[in-house]
TrEMBL record:
<protein>
    <submittedName>
        <fullName>Tryptophan 7-halogenase</fullName>
    </submittedName>
</protein>
<dbReference type="InterPro" id="IPR033856">
    <property type="entry name" value="Trp_halogen"/>
</dbReference>
<dbReference type="InterPro" id="IPR050816">
    <property type="entry name" value="Flavin-dep_Halogenase_NPB"/>
</dbReference>
<dbReference type="Pfam" id="PF04820">
    <property type="entry name" value="Trp_halogenase"/>
</dbReference>
<dbReference type="InterPro" id="IPR006905">
    <property type="entry name" value="Flavin_halogenase"/>
</dbReference>
<dbReference type="InterPro" id="IPR036188">
    <property type="entry name" value="FAD/NAD-bd_sf"/>
</dbReference>
<comment type="similarity">
    <text>Belongs to the flavin-dependent halogenase family. Bacterial tryptophan halogenase subfamily.</text>
</comment>
């Protein structure tokens, strides 16, 4: 039976893989994880998709088990600031788009324009975030949903099977290093063998399959399946097996980042329950609220800005609190391995592929990859069918998210310097140009977005087009002949639900201070 797995790398990807495999296969699988004590993890990766709750549920973990240990908070959206013009912002929330008489509420919004804020007129959560509130009451009860949070039929579904059925209203922010530490303990408690050592060589047989990895002090680690979680370096997949890397840089030029972990009195500052992406002269700055600190960083293109200028800009943006904080400069490899599973080696995490974290997709990629690897786990005959299915799913997810991110730059109204002017003339991925033409006459729907599962529903595309303001989108002509009374009632219902929630929900900080 093929059941000996060696994972190289102990960042978020390595420990998410080890813990999920143990939850999936129990003692029927033998896992060794080796990580360097000299090469650090990338040290960022602190905002997620809402789908990540399937990961914790699969591990049998409740929020109170892991969130306090990881200084975690809730993420209700990404807030895009200054992408259209200075001072403008909009939210991309975790909230199902309503429909009226067969038209998306956003289509009605384009026709009726109740206010200038599509995100407040069409989503309840935008006002909840503006008020700095928690989506759970102090007793832990969740705001009422069009679905039952605990419903059995939703458990056990993978993310891709789940999409479109329900939209859970929040995701998480957590300290990456603390999550890796938590999952290390979870994994070791369940029998994962943890070795701290450097892999110096990868041994291949005559077919080019991996037979083992050589370490400094723990000899050769042998196994059946080798998981490359060594980050951007792709030590096994790209270096030892020489699997080519397909760069996305021709369409996504941001290839650098500088990050700060800024201690903060969150009681005094208050928690804005979302990730904020603030556009800058050569990229954008993320702000992630955690208990006890803020995670922040400038994602930029080195062709337009030097690391020193980026760090200076970031420190000015953060202010005096950043004074004694050490900056972490990161070179980002943007794109994906041609195939993430080659022979008996699977790259997961940055070793597989990566796009800038504009919509917090790195950990989503890891979670998706792990789910797909369990679903397509190889048998002793290594039937290529599973590997091919896996590679197709993983490539589609990354290509789809790439296209979704490029849309943010193409649709952004800003053109106030060369960096932003170039976002309008740069090449776009195959297929996006045609899709953009369709969206000028009708908002995106499930038929016109990227055709393979990539984690994002049509309403996410609507938010980009309506929020960024650079592409003129027209309402469906049929609305002119349709009675708008039902749509007006829906807008009124959102206003009423917004009023009720903003009057009853606790402040985000007050909810989490119960745990700290
Ligand atoms: C600037 C930036 C911001 C990001 N923000 C987000 C976000 O908000 N949300 C999100 O979902 N994702 C985000 N990501 C992506 C996220 O950080 C990664 O997906 C996540 O950290 C996984 O990294 P990894 O485990 O693949 O690699 P790494 O964290 O780089 O870990 C690599 C591991 O390999 C080990 N290693 C390397 N070489 C050897 C060797 N020779 N022998 C033994 N061990 C070795 C290292 O010790 C380390 O343990 C961000 C990424 C960047 C760069
Ligand atoms: N399946 C994803 C899709 C999603 C829906 N809304 C958002 C908002 C943001 Cl910021 C990221 C992702 C998403 C999910 O439900 O998480």
């Amino acid at each position: 039976m093929l059941n000996r797995v060696v994972i190289v790398g102990g960042g978020t990807a390595g420990w998410m893989t080890a813990s999920y495999f143990k939850a999936a296969f129990g003692d029927r699988i033998d896992i060794t994880l080796v990580e360097s004590g000299n090469v650090g993890a990338v040290g960022v990766g602190e905002a997620t998709f809402s789908d990540i709750r399937h990961f914790f549920e699969f591990l049998g973990l409740k929020e109170k088990d892991w969130m306090p240990a990881c200084n975690a908070t809730y993420k209700l959206a990404v807030r895009f600031e200054n992408w259209r013009e200075q001072g403008h912002y909009y939210y991309h929330p975790f909230e199902q788009m309503r429909s009226v008489n067969g038209f998306a509420l956003t289509d009605w919004w384009l026709k009726e324009k109740p206010t200038e804020r599509f995100d407040k007129d069409c989503f309840v959560m935008s006002s909840v975030i503006d008020a700095g509130l928690s989506p759970r009451h102090l007793d832990g009860s969740l705001i009422d949903q069009p679905f039952d949070e605990g419903a059995e039929e939703m458990h056990g579904l993978t993310m891709s099977e789940h999409q479109g059925k329900t939209q859970f209203p929040y995701a998480y922010h957590f300290e990456a290093a603390l999550l890796a530490k938590y999952l290390t303990q979870y994994s070791v408690d369940r029998g994962v063998k943890h070795i701290i050592d450097d892999v110096s060589h990868v041994d291949l047989d005559e077919r080019g399959w991996i037979t083992g990895v050589r370490t400094g002090e723990h000899g050769d680690l042998t196994g059946d399946l080798f998981i490359d979680c060594t980050g951007f370096r792709g030590l096994l997949l790209n270096k030892a097996l020489e699997e080519p890397f397909i760069s996305y840089q021709d369409t996504l030029p941001n290839d650098s980042a500088v990050a700060l972990q800024v201690p903060m009195d969150m009681e005094k500052r208050g928690i804005r329950p979302c990730t904020t992406a603030t556009a800058q002269d050569a990229g954008w700055i993320w702000t992630i609220p955690l208990m006890g600190r803020v995670g922040t960083g400038y994602v930029y293109a080195k062709d337009y800005l030097s690391p020193d200028e980026a760090e200076r800009t970031l420190r000015e943006f953060v202010g005096p609190a950043a004074a004694d904080v050490e900056a972490n400069h990161i070179k980002m490899r943007i794109g994906r391995s041609r195939n993430s599973w080659v022979k008996n080696c699977v790259g997961i995490g940055l070793a597989s592929g990566f796009v800038e974290p504009l919509e917090s997709t790195g950990i989503f990629f890891i979670h998706h990859a792990i789910e797909q690897l369990v679903k397509n786990f190889p048998g002793p005959d290594w039937d290529a069918t599973y590997r091919n299915r896996y590679n197709d799913a993983v490539s589609h997810v990354m290509d789809g998210v790439r296209e979704f991110l490029v849309l943010h730059y193409v649709a952004a109204k800003r053109q106030d310097n060369q960096y932003w002017k170039d976002t309008k003339t740069r090449a776009v991925p195959d297929g996006l140009a045609e899709r953009l033409e369709k969206w000028k006459t009708q908002l995106p729907d499930s038929e016109t977005i990227f055709p393979y599962y990539h984690g994002l529903p049509a309403y996410s595309y609507m938010c980009v087009l309506l929020g960024m303001g650079g592409i003129d989108v027209k309402p469906s002509p049929g609305l002119a002949l349709t009675d708008s009374a039902a749509a007006q009632r829906e807008f009124a219902d959102i206003r009423e639900k917004t009023r009720q929630l903003t009057e009853t929900l606790p402040k985000a900080y007050d909810y989490f201070s119960q745990w700290h």
